[in-house]
């Protein structure tokens, strides 16, 4: 299959590769990269640094605008994944590319099915898969339907898919985002075994700890360019982080100490049974007016579910939630909004906006049926437009006109529309989920300022983010979620380090019940004493 | 940051934006015109290939309907029903519900209007209004069934509306052939409606023969304006639009999406019911077998052509009916089958649905202008 | 009531069921293949109509039934490819494009017949013949079974063979395997190098062929002439059977057979004192109820799953 590889030279390489998209975005600029055979090479960078685009070019999903891609030591033109596969490149995508109703074995062989004369030999498929799984140490059940197995097994299926195609280069795009620590360990063990067998592995991540654990060398990308490549042994998380982020690591947010007032959001014994995804178990916490409470956790550990339950998009199974004294657990979305909840959703393209509708219409979804926009059953387009012009001005949304469809805006501007809508409602509680995901630095700073301003104006802010730097920079207090449970609570974030929080996210450490429920009413009254955390964020109770 | 994604409209230059918008509008308009011309050209070729004289045929088709006043009446009468049916699907389409149920709704409306107008003695003005109201209610009810099935249960609205069509058409056929058939008549149709229930013919107003065209025309125009106001100027219209554009966003914003979907079906059904009443009270004066013909499906075409904008639906309905009326005249005068009109219409639909075409063109123009600069 | 039962169990009725179900089965399988390829084929109706008309006309003018049938099927295949091209190349909505194709077929066939034969109604003036029937020597003489099975048109046999064929195609062959992957998860299929569009084009062509066969049966099996709009909504009913059958070959088979049986029953009862129009609404009403029940059950199962997980 891979006969055309040259004997010497790097397994994969990019020479002066630039990728400019049709809309003018230059995602990758002049990258030179060489990865020799049998190496695990981590490629790190922030969101939007261009790592995924570069990998897509190695896999033939994108074609470089200039420069050349080399596979097996020779320049190649990859017209699609088909040609990349034929050259021995396999890729495990961040969103797994599996057919849900097919079995594991069927997914593994899809595209290169065993069998003769146009038929598929299912038994051979199962045998092949079982054999591959055994050889590589990636345990799967070949006969199970993919939509009925764990995320970890789905990912192993993806890797087996690549192995079945005799991949000599394996690209893993943020493979650990959805894995438990145990699954991550297993994955790493399997990856090392593959490397020892001669496989070249490209490991995309922005988790430095994992990168240090698994890789031989690290290439750092920033803003589309390759900043440098270092041997992992010589790198520290700090040095890598400094290469990764263009901005100062301790992102300067001008933030006065919080002046928390009365409790606005009160969550007790909250449980939610998710039909798919992460369930929530026994959550209890408060968010007071005038403070920002961050929620940390590895992605997929219940943050999205928590946000949607609190916003009214999902109904909790048990427990109570109240906002400013209103019991919201039984209300519909409109009821939640009436209770004073604003919500910046994590995926703005999915439900944050109606992309084909105008900015003006997008700004009024929660208030289109009441004055000043609507009176006596009549919606006034003039009022909607004036309203939009005011918010465009106030939130510095860059657009020539309120009638522009939201689709035509950049990520940062689109997010500004959403934030403008949610903040201008004057929420008691603002749930902000991944508020700076995929926005430029200017917009990012703008969001931070607005969140702090909202806090200072007396809103309770629940900030959910995958970006620990952001959480630590903004949060007055921090909660950590793992497996849908609260495992950490830091009532003082000053001096708290990412590393420290990471230990809680990974489940290495956890706070005990006493610490988690300290100061909450309605819980066992015997644990009121400890209500603070040391400056290093350790779990020991100490006065603040 | 330098990697800020550059998208279509980033500048704050209002003038430039207006120019772009005007250009896009011009492209849209000329595309519509080009679409119609292309369809006519294809019709031209088809006639040529089948050994007819296309010039003569088109002359009859395109000038015929305006030839004599009663032909104008024939056109307007047809346009009234067709436009109402176009409006009736435009509303669910706005909520992105593919309702194909206009057929069941128009027949239900016709039955309800006839039941009242034939059997229920009423004072003069009420004699017109009550059957209209009954028809709208029946149509709305017929819209509610698939609407509720979709909104509350998630049942596929295409299948539900098609099944309902099949059922209602057969029940209607049975009623006209059986219980409602005029006793003692050899032809199959119901008894005529009472004199007072008839929609006043336009001939009475203008004093020239306008065939069966009637004040239903104004009813249709009023309905179109009302629906346009509904969509653009009411909270319900806003909810329907947002539901159609992105239901997840609508739900997130606090809109009760199932309600919006149901309402879109009910409103559409009521309008289709009015179309049925127009056929009974204005056109035929009684129930006839298959009285809506293929109008229900052609209403879909009209709505599509108008991109579901109620005011544009009127224009599209008038245009489409003009072709239909012209086709009939063409057949009488030139022996070219009126079905060529259906072919032309079909080509228009296929070209209109090819959405990539205008976008492709707009992008190309934009690129060329950028290149010039 | 007795007479109804007599009718239902008569061999003539059973034979009629097979005959009446033929176009439903073929068209439904056509719809199924397209649906599983990821493109809803609402143009089944138009494909049947075009095939029926083309078949009768070509057979009439060429004198060859086989050539007519082949041309009929070929036209339906072309319409399928056209639908795929509109969807895949020009970004058209498959439903709306399908409506357009139906309109094109309705107008085109009527115009063609009128232009060629100067007849508004159909091709009854043209001698076009019909496809051969299959007599089964040996079985022919067995009572009931012979009367039901023997003497059926060859297309009827093809229609009943279509169920195992499509099941085999979907679950045993490489093409079917990839077709299902493409329809369910096009990105996944593309990421392993499957040419997604090619597979979809092939699926739509096959869909057209099956619908075309259904159409050919109408004008060259049932009767030997084309009548304007003779499909009478069968394509839409077939589409309903696709969904009712849960997008599975044997489910679709049962649903389509059910529609055929109900229509045959309506025809038989028409000879008695029952209004045939009302009887013929039964399958549609049943579909409507089944659709609602199915959706309701699915929704409730979704809810109970949630509560079950809480235990």
From TrEMBL, chain A:
Residues 519-544 are annotated as: Disordered. It comes from Streptomyces sporangiiformans. The keyword Zinc-finger does not apply. Residues 12-248, 265-508 form the ABC transporter domain. PANTHER family: CARBOHYDRATE TRANSPORT ATP-BINDING PROTEIN MG119-RELATED, GUANOSINE IMPORT ATP-BINDING PROTEIN NUPO. InterPro entries: AAA+_ATPase (IPR003593), ABC_carbohydrate_import_ATPase (IPR050107), ABC_transporter-like_ATP-bd (IPR003439), ABC_transporter-like_CS (IPR017871), P-loop_NTPase (IPR027417). This is ABC transporter ATP-binding protein. SUPFAM superfamilies: P-loop containing nucleoside triphosphate hydrolases. One of its GO terms (molecular function) is ATP binding. Keywords: ATP-binding, Nucleotide-binding.
TrEMBL record, chain B:
It is found in: Cell membrane. It holds the Pfam family BPD_transp_2. GO terms for cellular component: plasma membrane. GO terms for molecular function: transmembrane transporter activity. InterPro entries: ABC_transp_permease. It is a multi-pass membrane protein. The keyword Translocase does not apply. Keywords: Cell membrane, Membrane, Transmembrane, Transmembrane helix. The chain crosses the membrane at residues 25-49, 105-122, 153-172, 213-231, 295-320, 340-361. This is ABC transporter permease. CDD domains: TM_PBP1_transp_TpRbsC_like. It comes from Streptomyces sporangiiformans.
UniProtKB/TrEMBL annotation, chain C:
The keyword Transmembrane applies. It holds the Pfam family BPD_transp_2. It is found in: Cell membrane. The chain crosses the membrane at residues 65-88, 94-117, 154-171, 201-223, 235-258, 278-296. The keyword Cell division does not apply. One of its GO terms (cellular component) is plasma membrane. This is ABC transporter permease.
């Amino acid at each position: 299959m891979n006969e055309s590889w040259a004997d010497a030279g790097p397994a994969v390489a990019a020479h002066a590769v630039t990728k400019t998209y049709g809309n003018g975005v230059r995602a990758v600029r002049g990258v030179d990269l060489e990865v020799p055979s049998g190496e695990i090479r981590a490629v790190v960078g922030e969101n939007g640094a261009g790592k995924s685009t570069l990998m897509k070019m190695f896999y033939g999903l994108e074609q470089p605008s200039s420069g050349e891609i080399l596979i097996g030591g020779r320049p190649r033109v990859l017209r699609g994944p088909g040609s990349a596969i034929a050259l021995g490149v396999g890729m495990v995508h961040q969103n797994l590319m599996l057919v849900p109703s097919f079995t594991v074995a069927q997914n593994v062989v899809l595209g290169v099915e065993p069998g003769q004369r146009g038929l598929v030999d299912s038994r051979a498929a199962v045998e092949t898969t079982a054999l591959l799984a055994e050889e590589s140490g990636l345990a799967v059940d070949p006969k199970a339907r993919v939509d009925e197995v764990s995320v970890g097994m789905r990912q192993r299926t993806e890797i087996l898919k690549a192995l079945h195609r005799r991949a000599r280069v394996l690209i893993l795009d943020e493979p650990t985002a959805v894995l438990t620590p145990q699954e991550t360990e297993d994955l790493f063990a399997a990856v090392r075994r593959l490397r020892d067998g001669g496989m070249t592995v490209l490991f995309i991540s922005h988790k430095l700890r994992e990168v240090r654990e698994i890789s031989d060398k690290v290439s750092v990308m920033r803003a589309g360019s390759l900043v440098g490549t270092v041997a992992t042994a010589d790198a520290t998380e700090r040095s890598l982080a400094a290469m990764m982020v263009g901005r100062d690591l301790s992102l300067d947010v001008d933030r006065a100490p919080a002046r928390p007032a009365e409790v606005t959001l009160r969550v007790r014994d909250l449980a939610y049974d998710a039909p798919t995804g992460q369930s929530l178990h026994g959550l209890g916490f408060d968010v007071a007016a005038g403070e920002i409470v961050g929620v940390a956790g590895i992605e997929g550990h219940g943050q999205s579910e928590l946000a949607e339950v609190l916003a009214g998009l999902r109904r909790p199974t048990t427990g109570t939630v109240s906002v400013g004294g209103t019991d919201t657990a039984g209300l519909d979305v409109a009821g939640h909004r009436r209770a004073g909840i604003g919500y910046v959703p994590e995926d703005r393209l999915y439900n944050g906006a109606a992309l084909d509708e105008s900015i003006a219409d997008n700004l009024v979804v929660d208030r289109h049926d009441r004055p000043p926009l609507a009176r006596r059953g009549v919606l006034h387009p003039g009022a909607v437009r004036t309203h939009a012009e005011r918010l465009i001005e106030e939130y510095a949304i860059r657009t020539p006109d309120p009638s522009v469809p939201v689709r035509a805006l950049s990520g940062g501007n689109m997010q500004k529309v959403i934030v403008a809508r949610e903040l201008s409602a004057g929420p008691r509680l603002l749930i902000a989920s991944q508020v700076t995901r995929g926005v430029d630095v200017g917009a990012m700073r703008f969001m931070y300022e607005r969140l702090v301003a909202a806090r200072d104006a007396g809103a309770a802010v629940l900030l959910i983010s995958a970006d620990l730097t952001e959480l630590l920079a903004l949060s007055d207090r921090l909660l950590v979620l793992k497996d849908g449970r609260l495992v950490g609570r830091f009532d003082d974030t000053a001096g708290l380090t990412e590393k420290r929080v990471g230990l809680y996210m990974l489940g290495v450490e956890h706070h005990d019940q006493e610490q988690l429920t300290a100061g909450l009413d309605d819980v066992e009254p015997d644990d009121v004493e400890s209500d603070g955390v040391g400056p290093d964020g350790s779990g020991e109770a100490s006065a603040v | 940051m330098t990697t800020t994604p550059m998208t279509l409209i980033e500048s704050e230059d209002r003038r430039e934006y207006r120019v772009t918008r005007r250009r896009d509008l011009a492209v849209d308009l000329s595309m519509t015109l080009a679409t119609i011309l292309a369809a006519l050209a294809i019709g031209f070729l088809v006639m040529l290939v089948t050994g007819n004289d296309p010039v003569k045929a088109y002359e009859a088709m395109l000038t015929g309907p305006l030839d004599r006043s009663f032909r104008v009446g024939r056109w307007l009468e047809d346009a009234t029903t067709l436009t109402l049916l176009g409006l009736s699907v435009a509303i669910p389409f706005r909520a992105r519900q593919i309702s194909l149920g206009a057929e069941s709704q128009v027949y239900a409306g016709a039955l309800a209007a006839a039941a009242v107008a034939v059997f229920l003695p009423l004072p003069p003005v009420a004699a017109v209004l009550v059957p209209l109201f009954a028809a709208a209610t029946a149509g709305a009810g017929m819209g509610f069934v698939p609407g509720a099935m979709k909104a509350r249960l998630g049942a596929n609205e295409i299948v539900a509306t098609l099944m309902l069509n099949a059922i209602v058409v057969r029940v209607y056929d049975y009623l006209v052939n059986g219980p409602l058939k005029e006793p003692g008549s050899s032809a199959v149709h119901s008894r005529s409606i009472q004199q007072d229930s008839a929609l006043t013919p336009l001939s009475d107003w203008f004093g020239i023969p306008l065939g069966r065209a009637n004040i239903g025309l104004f009813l249709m125009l009023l309905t179109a304006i009302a629906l346009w106001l509904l969509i653009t100027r009411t909270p319900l219209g806003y909810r329907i639009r947002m539901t159609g554009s992105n239901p997840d966003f609508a739900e997130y914003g606090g809109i009760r999406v199932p309600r919006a979907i149901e309402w879109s079906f009910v409103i559409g059904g009521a309008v289709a019911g009015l179309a049925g009443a127009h056929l009974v009270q204005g056109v035929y004066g009684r129930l006839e077998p298959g009285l809506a013909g293929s109008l229900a499906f052609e209403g879909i075409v009209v709505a599509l052509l108008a991109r579901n904008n109620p005011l544009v639906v009127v224009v599209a309905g008038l245009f489409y009916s003009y072709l239909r009326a012209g086709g009939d005249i063409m057949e009488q005068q030139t022996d070219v089958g009126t079905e060529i009109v259906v072919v032309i219409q079909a080509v228009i639909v296929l070209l209109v649905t090819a959405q990539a075409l205008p976008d492709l063109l707009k992008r190309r123009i934009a690129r060329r202008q950028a290149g010039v600069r | 009531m007795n007479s109804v039962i007599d009718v239902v169990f008569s061999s003539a009725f059973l034979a009629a069921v097979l005959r009446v179900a033929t176009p439903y089965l073929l068209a439904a399988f056509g719809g199924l293949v397209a649906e599983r390829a990821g493109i809803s084929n609402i143009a089944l109706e138009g494909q049947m109509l075009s095939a029926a008309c083309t078949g009768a006309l070509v057979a009439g003018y060429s004198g060859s039934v086989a050539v007519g049938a082949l041309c009929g099927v070929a036209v339906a295949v072309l319409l399928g490819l056209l639908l795929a091209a509109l969807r895949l190349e020009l970004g058209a909505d498959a439903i709306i494009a399908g409506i357009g194709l139906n309109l094109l077929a309705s107008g085109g066939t009527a115009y063609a017949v009128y232009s060629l034969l100067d007849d508004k109604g159909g091709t009854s003036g043209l001698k076009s013949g019909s496809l051969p029937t299959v007599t089964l020597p040996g079985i022919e003489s067995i009572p009931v079974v012979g009367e039901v099975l023997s003497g059926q048109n060859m297309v009827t046999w093809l229609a009943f063979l279509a169920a195992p064929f499509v099941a085999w195609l979907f679950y045993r062959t490489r093409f079917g395997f990839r077709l299902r992957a493409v329809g369910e998860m096009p990105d996944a299929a593309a990421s392993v190098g499957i040419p997604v569009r090619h597979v979809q084009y092939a699926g739509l062509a096959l869909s057209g062929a099956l619908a075309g066969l259904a159409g050919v049966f109408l004008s060259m099996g049932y009767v030997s002439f084309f009548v304007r709009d003779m499909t009478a909504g069968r394509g839409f009913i077939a589409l309903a059977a696709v969904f009712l059958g849960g997008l599975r070959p044997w489910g679709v088979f049962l649903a389509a057979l059910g529609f055929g049986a109900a229509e045959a029953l309506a025809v038989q009862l028409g000879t008695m004192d029952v209004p045939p129009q009302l009887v013929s609404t039964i399958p549609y009403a049943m579909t409507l109820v089944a659709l609602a029940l199915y959706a309701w059950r699915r929704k409730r199962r979704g809810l109970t799953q949630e509560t079950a997980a809480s235990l």
